[in-house]
């Protein structure tokens, strides 16, 4: 075994054998070197010049001690091994020992039972402590910056947000921290300053307690107001519900918030009007009261239509001009409740009925154009005869001038020949309007009964093809009055100057309703039927019986005349109704034709 000393070197002589995982600190860049120094030195807070000198001196002493121990060990081994070694050999051993002592070895020497760490380990541990201290310093600096930014946010919020961390902005409201500056006189004693600081601290606490008390009091007031608003809101909802209104849940078309709606229309009563009568009970966020807001047909937007009502007027013709001689009255029947919200619902229901009435009247007027009925968007004109008109108007309601709508008195005297007073004509107009409304209610009832029946093909056909009988029976009955008056005049003219004839005349009006129900609504939808009975006796005691039935069809306005002529040879046969001969039985639709026919029959009988 060789007596030469053992040397350990971590550097490789050849570049191709160099360890790729070892980095040369001399080749590191500044951005890589600084983080390593920060990790090795940890904290720089307590570094002083004297401490650095002591650290360098300790490192040198430790390094020299290690070199001396190694050199002494080598000499002892050499002396024991070969006493005759020359001086040159000893010099070489010391030189090699000193050269190898400059290398940093990661080995541990055990001496007297203690572990002695090498310089590299000491350096690594100190470097780790340094990195921890630097990290702690950065964290403390960041917290200090957040504190200053939060304190500054009450004065300069935009500047504070730029320097405040996102974590602090997320969990702490800006401007929530504030500070005041305390100015004390330097000439005062320290005790006085301390006393003043104590008083200032107590003042701050008192102020903080006052602010907290004020905040709690304001919160309490807010809660009381919210409770009061909710109580007022639900009391008004209960008031509407107690008025037997149908409520339903919906969404506010403006804010899409949950709300409660009310059905004020006549859909459940049998109406098929396009406006279903839906409204929103919108809550006022300031007072808690509800506001009645009508909706459009689809219910997706707020309705903006104007309130209108139906008015009936009678006009008479004087000197080629028409003058109003009668007018119906606007009756305010919806303002009977002491609660405003109920009156608003009843008001909307009242005008919805008026809109439905004029809509149904306009539908019927369109099929009566050929019968002297003129229909426009806002008016229906019915020509009674050549001397008069009946106008049905859809008037816009003026709430400001409501008294003018209620005033139905004639503002001027009627001219001569008007035939009736202003009061009677006004009453007639009011009765016509009442008739229209009652007939529309009857149509609602009819539709409701159809909906309650078992659905069959017949009931479905009736539901889709049923139309209200409002204007047609009205016009038909007026025309029927004109028809029977005209027929009476024709008969009188035919027999007035016939001295060779003995005549008896009998007239029966609405004979088809005599045996029917006394229900006036049932009579209103029945086709009118009146009968003229005329018996003639000539000088030969022959008897001629003329029977004329004046009626109409389903349209109520057409003229239908049924003529029946019977002849008896004697009066006794007529009285016993035997041996009668049916001379003629025919139907006419024109007065001129029946006039000519009757004239020929009477002349032939004479």
Write the layout of secondary structure elements.
Elements: H1 30-41, H2 49-81, H3 87-101, E1 109-111, E2 114-116, H4 119-152, H5 157-163, H6 166-171, H7 190-242, E3 246-251, E4 258-263, E5 278-283, E6 290-294, E7 308-318, E8 321-327, H8 340-365, E9 373-375, E10 379-385, E11 388-396, H9 402-406, H10 422-452, H11 457-465, H12 471-495, E12 502-508, H13 520-524, E13 530-537, E14 543-551, E15 560-568, H14 571-576, E16 581-588, H15 591-605
Antiparallel strand pairs: 1-2, 3-4, 4-5, 5-6, 7-8, 7-11, 9-10, 10-11, 12-13, 13-14, 14-15, 15-16
Helix pairs in contact: 1-4, 2-3, 4-5, 12-15
GO molecular function: transcription coregulator activity
GO cellular component, one term: core mediator complex
Family: Belongs to the Mediator complex subunit 17 family.
How far is the N terminus from the C terminus? 182 Å
Q: Count structural domains.
A: 4
- In round numbers, the mean pLDDT is 79
Strand order of the largest sheet: 8-7-11-10-9
Spans with pLDDT under 50 lasting ≥5 residues? 6-17, 70-113, 408-412
GO molecular function: transcription coregulator activity
Protein name: Mediator of RNA polymerase II transcription subunit 17
GO cellular component, one term: mediator complex
Keywords: Activator, Nucleus, Transcription, Transcription regulation
């Amino acid at each position: 075994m060789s007596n030469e000393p053992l040397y350990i070197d971590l550097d490789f002589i050849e570049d191709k054998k160099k360890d790729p995982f070892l980095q040369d600190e001399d080749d590191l860049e500044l951005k890589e070197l600084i983080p390593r120094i920060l990790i090795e030195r940890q904290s720089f807070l307590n570094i002083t010049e004297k401490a650095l000198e002591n650290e360098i001196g300790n490192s040198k002493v430790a390094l020299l001690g290690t070199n001396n121990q190694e050199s002494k060990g080598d000499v002892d081994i050499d002396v024991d091994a070969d006493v005759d070694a020359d001086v040159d050999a000893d010099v070489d051993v010391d030189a090699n020992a000193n050269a190898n002592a400059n290398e940093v070895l990661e080995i541990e020497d055990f001496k007297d039972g203690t572990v002695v760490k090498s310089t590299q380990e000491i350096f690594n541990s100190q470097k780790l402590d340094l990195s921890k201290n630097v990290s702690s310093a950065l964290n403390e600096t960041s917290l200090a910056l957040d504190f200053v930014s939060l304190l500054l946010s009450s004065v300069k919020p935009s500047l504070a947000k730029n320097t405040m961390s996102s974590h602090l902005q997320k969990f702490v409201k800006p401007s929530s921290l504030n500070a005041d500056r305390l100015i004390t006189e330097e000439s005062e004693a320290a005790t006085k300053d301390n006393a003043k600081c104590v008083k200032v601290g107590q003042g701050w606490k008192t102020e903080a307690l006052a602010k907290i008390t004020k905040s709690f009091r304001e919160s309490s007031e807010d809660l009381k107001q919210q409770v009061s608003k909710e109580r007022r809101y639900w009391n008004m909802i209960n008031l509407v519900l107690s008025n037997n209104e149908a409520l339903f849940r919906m969404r506010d078309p403006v804010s899409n918030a949950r709300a409660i709606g009310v059905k004020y229309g006549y859909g459940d009563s049998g109406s098929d009007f396009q406006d279903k009568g839906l409204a929103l009970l919108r809550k006022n966020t300031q007072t808690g009261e509800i506001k009645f807001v009508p909706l459009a047909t689809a219910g997706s937007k707020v309705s903006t239509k104007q309130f209108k009502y139906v008015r009936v007027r009678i006009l008479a013709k004087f000197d080629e001009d028409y003058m109003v001689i009668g007018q119906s009255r606007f009756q305010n029947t919806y303002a009977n409740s002491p609660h405003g919200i109920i009156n608003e619902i009843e008001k909307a229901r009242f005008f919805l009925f008026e809109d439905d009435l004029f809509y149904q009247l306009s539908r019927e007027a369109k099929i009566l154009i050929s019968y002297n009925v003129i229909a426009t968007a806002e008016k229906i004109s019915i020509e009674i005869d050549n001397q008069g008109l009946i106008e049905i108007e859809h008037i816009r309601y003026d709430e400001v001038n409501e008294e003018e709508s209620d005033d139905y008195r004639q503002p001027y005297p009627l001219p001569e020949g008007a035939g009736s007073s202003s009061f009677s004509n006004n009453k007639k107009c009011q009765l016509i309007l009442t008739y229209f409304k009652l007939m529309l209610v009857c149509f609602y009832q009819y539709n409701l009964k159809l909906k309650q029946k078992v659905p069959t093909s017949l009931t479905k056909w009736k539901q889709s093809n049923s139309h209200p009988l409002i204007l047609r029976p009205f016009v038909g009955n007026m025309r029927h009055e004109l028809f029977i008056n005209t027929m009476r005049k024709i008969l009188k003219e035919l027999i007035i100057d016939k001295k060779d004839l003995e005549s008896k005349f009998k007239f029966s009006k609405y004979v088809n309703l005599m045996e029917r129900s006394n229900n006036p609504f049932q009579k209103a939808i029945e086709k009118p039927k009146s009968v003229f009975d005329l018996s003639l006796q000539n000088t030969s005691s022959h008897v001629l019986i003329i029977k004329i039935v004046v009626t109409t069809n389903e349209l109520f306005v057409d003229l239908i005349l049924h003529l029946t002529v019977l002849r008896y040879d004697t009066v006794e046969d007529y009285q016993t109704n035997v041996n009668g001969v049916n001379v003629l039985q025919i139907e006419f639709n024109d007065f001129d034709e029946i006039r000519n026919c009757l004239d020929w029959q009477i002349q032939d009988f004479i």
